Amino acid sequence: MNSQYPCMMAVAQIRGGPLAPNLRGIVYFRAVAGGTEVYANVTGLPPYRPAQNGQPPIGPHGFHLHQNGDCSVGDVNNPFQGAGEHWNPTNQPHGNHAGDFPVLFSNNGNAWMIFFTDKFTVGDIIGKSVVIHQNPDDYRTQPAGNSGKRLACGVIRCVYNWMNY
Ligand SMILES: [Cu+2]
Question: What cofactors does the UniProt entry give for this protein (predicted)?
Fold first, then answer.
């Protein structure tokens, strides 16, 4: 929703693409003192697989904000390219992008976590997207932490503005 008032709560509904068709999830962004609380609850992650034959491990999963609110699947072999690159409003190296998040650890396909960030307000991220990757984020390879293909995506929308009760 559009409002002259700041967004206090936003949600991204996460849906898996062709590489993780059963993946579903929800990510909440809540305005708190000094920044934003991020809550993620995801099911249907693929089973962990250790690195083998020069292939990176599957899981824990890279987890970021990407710049475009476009979660169309596109190329089934390389999904969700429409989401674009990492959202990087302050021109930082990867590892310190405003939307670089902790990796998601799967527990038999399920993950949930809550963390705090002071790198954006809820209003800053409306219309961006959340992406879950196949591989772990190494937090140093540019520009995206070598976290591999995109398993799932969700567009961030405001669900609650201040003064909007
Ligand atoms: Cu990403």
Answer: Zn(2+); Cu cation
Going by pLDDT thresholds of 50, 70 and 90, the confidence category of residue 3 is low
All domains of the chain in start order, with CATH: 7-161 (2.60.40.200)
Q: Across residues 143-147, what is the average pLDDT?
A: 90
- With a pLDDT cut of 70, the percent of the chain lying above it is 97
DSSP state of 81: G
Residue 125: C-alpha distances to residues 62, 110, 134 (Å): 18, 25, 23
Centroid of ligand 1 to alpha carbon of 87 (angstroms):
9
> What's the 96 CA to ligand 1 centre distance in angstroms?
13
- In the reported structure, the alpha carbon of residue 92 is separated from the centroid of ligand 1 by a whole-number distance in angstroms of 15
